[in-house]
Request: fold
Amino acid sequence: MNSSDAKRYARQLILPEIGVAGQQRLRDARVLLVGVGGLGSPIALYLAAAGVGCLALIDNDVVSESNLQRQVLYTNDEIGQPKVRCAARRLKALNPQLQVDEYPLRLVPPLARHIVKAYDIVVDGTDNFQTRYLLGDVTAQLGKPYVYGAIREFEGQVSVFNISPGRTYRTLFPEEEMGGVPPKGVMGVLPGVIGCMEASEVIKWITGCGELLDGRLWTINLLTMQTQVIEY
Reply:
């Protein structure tokens, strides 16, 4: 580790649970983030800042004005530009050492397995059931950890799948949800809370510190500040 790294990651390096060995594992890690919207923004920013070596971004959308209330990766000047390109530019400005793999596309079955197998861990920044079930199935087949997060209005939830045998996305959600559900509103700070929790689980898995949300679903309601951990 060079002197620049020692300065940049000083506050992590002094944590005995991470230290030099954990920081090196972060540098060696290859993380796939599917969706760089509300959830993906804080996930990407904090993983880049933490020193993850390679972060792959998948999203086929462009920045719109309605995104800016919660998607903190983007600026008003970037409206109409591809999210993946804007996100990569912002993340490289934050941490020039970061390798960003850009996939400006929608994840579909023919591509999913090919892309997922190239990375160590998958993080959910999506907003639809179809993609989540695809990710859940592909990561389970490949044995890749899958960090899940979801938000709605004032409530959010986080879990980690494929760590222990039999604890997959379909273990928690065995039946596919109905499509065509009208979009719901969301408090702007909620994806920040849930996205940070997801980033934390990724860092914990990479460095081997703490207890993952394996077989447990963590939930929070920002209106009441009530949290629960539900075992499954």
Q: What stands out?
A: The mean pLDDT is 95. The chain has nine helices and eight strands.
